[in-house]
Automatic annotation (TrEMBL), chains A, B, C, D:
One of its GO terms (molecular function) is oxidoreductase activity. It comes from Ferirhizobium litorale. It comes from the Bacteria. CDD domains: TlpA_like_family. Signal peptide: none annotated. Residues 17-143 form the Redoxin domain. It holds the Pfam family Redoxin. This is TlpA family protein disulfide reductase. Transmembrane segments: none annotated. InterPro entries: Redoxin, Thioredoxin-like_sf, Thioredoxin_ResA/DsbE_sf.
């Protein structure tokens, strides 16, 4: 689970946001844990189990710096689950946290964020640590106790003090024989 | 609850049917009990409670002559709950019994069938007896035991043998100073 | 389900009653439907599912002539589930309908009523018709809708008018080559 | 939540243990977090909600050093909830973690451990930190997510490195005008 070995979360690709005055990026959220959940408004398991769990997470961690984000990852019945339907859904189900519409890609049923995270379906969730690494991902809804425990662990992790060291080669980012993925945290720093 | 005093159910007004090869009318169903349920695909109580109850009713009374009918009575977020969305919903939620789209009326948010039955919202249900009378109606979801008991009572009621007496005046239908609503049961006799 | 073919319910054998001023017998209840449920206070399925269902039945059929009866059929952990424990259980769980302690039999783990009805374990239930016949029995908890429907059917059955015919041979009770179990209903008539 | 301000948990007073080869004391468990839950076998909320939650906690934190302990705090219907009944209950409900019978006190309905912790009834729970302090206590069952989060926080707390310092005055333990209860935590200080 340490930041040196856990994979970094890819960036979100969103065509339209709800419940937020401005678009969100994981890069800009570096330093805070993120609970990312993906759903479709006509997915029975999402509506019956995942969304209610997200609402409990919203409530219980309201006073922490956890950021909850939903992504509407439509990969079937596209015309039946347009942003107009999503907007009414969010209103009726009283979901408060930001929700983005996963960016559609020409010629693909599966939208971009879903592809980047390699998600298998809905509902899925990804817990992202303060350092931007993927701490846990799940397809389906997991037990509340385990979810609460994992989020608490993510919250309790200290933010590593990031020394503003000059990197010798921004583009290559290969040092001492090791090549790092260009980290979004530098953009956010 | 006797047929002489209970109000007759008005006829359905439907613009599009799903899960049935041909349109249904209550008139043609006279002689069979009908469990009519109304819903909207973005109504949380419908999805969480009413639709699962309808599925239990479908299963438990599968070998009886009960007719289950759903009516999609959209009275808000109209563009978010089009027939395209309804069709995908029925597919995802595995609803087997016939569902009709309540007929929209120019200048009214509330569709026609919903108006005729005087329904207050969704989910609602109406239990219709073999003689076409309204035996029970409810706004919200009622206890399974009570619902099962009422349907069983409706099923156990014998269809009164209707003697094919010539009515003096089919159109007027006023006899002995009393005027009856032209009853569809005569068509079914 | 007709009274001529369904087996007659055997009589209860009870060592102690709760929630009733006087002992009950099925013979004396002839003419009324009876919902008989058996349980043990340390049976998880009884406590979690069967007892709450019995309470829903008590409430929903409160205005009918259905008689609900519980039988505490202890067949294991006998010293752990004494009548003292049962009494406190009934108090804590607010069970209102009569409950009898199934009569223990010397040399048998299984008490007498449980043996007579051939019950396989707890929770079990037996629905007894107005004529004393067993309409349905179940090991485990069944769906509320089905339970409600069956009780409603039992309630809607007319009590057959019992002609006071003289029986040729009370003890033998064999007529026209057929031998009937001596019916308790004659005692109750 | 720091050990310097949170009250220390008092010691358990138990007359009989189940599910453990040897009696447990909180003193001997110092260094590990403890989830202490109290219940009665005839308490409906305990059986329906608290015990299942304890079983989820047992399962989800199985690979951590959390110690789950149950205390049977009978404060009513004493003869109905003897250790014999408790033993059968633990068998039927498959509770694996240690359970102690709260020590009865002559002339008091409320047993000793329950008094020491000032518990208001059942079900109650107390989360005890690695340093022996009470991190959280609750009367009734709390949300799984919050429970999971609190236990994770207790687990993530580092055990303070125990310096083998000689204490100047074990008996008095008064320093700078403040007198501490002779605490097992001094070993951990």
């Amino acid at each position: 689970m340490s930041s040196s070995t856990a994979p970094l979360a890819p960036e979100l690709a969103v065509s339209e946001w709800f419940n937020t005055p401005a678009p969100l990026t994981l890069a800009a959220l570096r330093g805070r844990p993120v609970f990312l959940h993906t759903f479709q408004v006509l997915c029975p398991g999402c509506v019956a189990e995942a969304i209610p769990q997200v609402q409990r997470i919203e409530r219980i961690f309201a006073n922490t710096d956890l950021q909850v984000i939903g992504i509407h990852t439509v990969f079937e019945h596209h015309s039946a689950m347009s942003p107009v339907t999503l907007r009414a859904f969010l209103h009726e189900y009283r979901l408060r946290s930001p929700v983005g519409v996963d960016l559609a890609e020409e010629g693909s049923e599966v939208p971009v964020t879903m592809q980047r995270f390699g998600l298998r379906g809905t509902p899925s969730s990804v817990l992202i640590g303060r350092d931007g690494s993927i701490l846990h991902h799940a397809f389906g809804v997991e037990d509340d106790i385990a979810v609460g425990a994992r989020i608490a662990m993510a919250l309790s992790t200290r933010v590593p003090e990031i020394a503003p060291t000059a990197m010798p080669d921004q583009k290559g980012a290969c040092v001492d024989g090791k090549c790092a993925v260009p980290s979004p945290s530098k953009d956010a720093a």
